[in-house]
Specification:
The structure holds two protein chains of two kinds. By secondary structure, chain A is an alpha+beta fold. In chain A, 16% of the residues lie in helices and 36% in strands. Chain A has a single domain, classed as Ferrous iron transport protein A (FeoA) (SH3 type barrels). The chains are: A alpha+beta, B mainly alpha. The interface between A and B is large, with 31 and 44 residues.
Chain lengths: 85, 797
Amino acid sequence: MRMLPNDVLPLTMVTPGQTVKLLDICAERKLRRRLTELGLTTGTELRVMQDQGGPVLIAIRDTRLALGRRMAQRILVDFRQEMPE
Amino acid sequence: MTEATIALAGNPNTGKSTIFNILTGSSQHIGNWPGTTVERKEGTLKDNRVPISVVDLPGIYSLAAYSPEEAIARDFIVIARPALVVNVVDVANLERNLYLTVQLMETETPLIIVLNMMDVASERGLSIDTQTLSRHLGDLPVIPAVASRGQGLESLRQMLTALVASLPQSSNGLVRQLDPTGVCCRNPNPPSVVIPDIIHRPRVISAASPASPYQIQRQVELAFARTIVAQPTLISYDQAIEAEISRLRAVIEQVPALTTSCSARWLAIQLLQGDEATLAVVEKAEGGAGVRRILTGSLTRLEQFYDDDIDIIMADYRYSFVNQLVRSVISRRGQMMTLSDKIDRVVTHRYLGIPIFLTIMWVVFKVTTDLTAPFLDWIDRVISGPLTRWVIVSLGIAGLDGTWVESLFVEGIIAGVGGVLVFVPVLMSLYLALALLEDSGYMARAAFVMDRLMNLLGLQGKSFLPMIVGFGCTVPALYATRTLDNEKDRILTGLLVPFMSCGARLPVYILVASIFFPDHTGLVIFGLYLTGIVTALVLGLILKGTLFKGEEEVALLMELPPYHWPNLKTVWFYLWERTAAFIHNAWTIILATSIVIWLLMAMPSGGQITFADTELNESAFAAISRAIAPVFAPLGFGQWEASGALVTGLVAKEVVVSTLAQTYNVVEGEAAMESTMFHDDLTEIGASFVTATADTVKSIPLIIGIDLFDEENETTPSELKVPIRQSFEAASRGHGSLAALAFMVFILLYTPCMATIVAERQVLGRRWMWLSIIGQLALAWLAAWVVFQGGLLLGLG
């Protein structure tokens, strides 16, 4: 099920400190697979730790990952904060 | 001859190297995986009756074989077939680590799991049920460990010994072969013992109470007794995928050439994931031609069904399996901000990040240059003093004093090899700094901070460190490129590093610039450094658009591992291994070159003079230099003395000044040959070492700008200035300053030294080494030509 378009944002638009849910990676297959294998699967929660215009630092599944800016722009997330737990 | 080979596999930053170091001790040696720039580490299991060879596979996140590291690991496991794979798993990061475990299990290779970093996990409030984990992973042996404190590794060692000892001998084993032209059989020495497809299933052994060797032996025997022919499928994918796996498997099983080497299910999974290399191997095998047709059908059906790439769907399945598994074995006490996160808030901060990084780099740079300078002098003094004296005395006893043999030893071998040994303190201190930065976790942060800037040059953040190190010494800088995780970045950075003007080039600039530009010496030298940087930038942009065109877009994708105190053992091994590797690789090539240069200088070009008693300007060296000299005539320095200095400069830039002095016939202060007692020499060596250490301690405050040394001004001997000036003026027909500038530009841009070439061969491989040597020579000539001819055109000089 797809979210409403106004809830979908690229990772670079997320305020640091926010927890979001990964929706999609708009990249060619090779990069998509690399990211998926690092744990960026659809539906996974991630938190933006640091984003100051350069690479983006995220926390996902106990890992801290640094993503180059252009890569981060291709990662679409659902920023609605309704995750219980 | 080793009995069996075991491999260590796991994610990066799991403590795999620490485990490898403890298991193998000093028996290890490092090299490269054939045809790659990826480091290969191998050793033998310490204190073991049966010699077991241990291979440390590159740290990887997946077996997808998209990077050279992954391809190496996969091929080693599937083709070379180690007797056993030890999968090192970081408990504090269990999900992502187990993803690789699942892939390793799919290869149906015998597997043991080491759950490392149990201490970090408990600090973070995680507790793990190892029994349940083992059960869910098909009863794989699971050993909890804290590698940094050596905990759990004794159990691992015992288990490895027991398992390998109980392996069937090679005669009973199934001999595995795979098309040698296949997936890339990179392993030159396949293990001698090959084992059939069986999974060992001893019970979990806890780190707290290591089982006795007898117990382990018993468990192993039980495991073999329970050998299961058809291994139960660990992870089943969706029905649709499983159906296609079975379909492909059925076809593959009809190709005997394939199933003797790999599991049919694994091959089917690889094919569905779109692995080109596997498909090529399958099609090449006898009777494998029909597989592609079946595969195309399977992929079409699946893509219609899922409307997405199948490999991504399969990766998703593995993750959801792992996710459920982790939920059932790990309990968390609250989510908290870790200490690492708190440190990162400062260290990766927008405004603080770069100043912090530059401060650390400044310290590293100062440490490698200033702190080691006293030791450098010490080695130099020991070699040119006592060592030389001993050799002369020994040769004298053999009745060879004053002969050409003495000259060969003293002026050839000792001088040449000594010139390399003086690099050792620089290398060691640099490796120490690198090891501390790497092992503590800071290196990844540095790359994060510098990424934005380096992106402009087509490189990523991690390339910055080797560049900075290059201002100290090109050799360790080249080795530092090994910290880059992408082959293309490694090569591109390695090609650019020599343009960072190293410390050894500085004395040449000082000498020449002070003669021709006495009022602007500093400015000229600064300009040369800048020229080097600009050259690297421009060349980087050009290479990015040409040789490396079409290569994957450079983008940072990197884990920031949690900070931790560097492990002394790991740091020591890092330091020791790499220094030893350098010496090992350098001495032959340097020795050979030193002897050649000596021979050329000793051989007369005419007939009247005797061997080894030749005046330099009548030697073969001068003759060769004269022959080369016309090449440099358009650059303004066509006199043979200059080209001679450039030739020896190929050996090391340090000797350019002394060659100039020799060729212009300026007698350097000969070391007086006083006869000393052997123990006096030893005392002198000891005393000067103490002085060197004291000087090093004194130079620590230099890092922050406090100078405890008395002013020491080295002045250029004026007797050298006049002939150099005259000769440059004559060769350039009155444009001496321009010619001198062109000469310095040439010194800046051509191959720094012999040791650099050795390092390039080791790090970049032979092909890139030659490209670098030839490219730099061409570039140096062109740039010097532009400086001289351009200057003439503009009416300068």
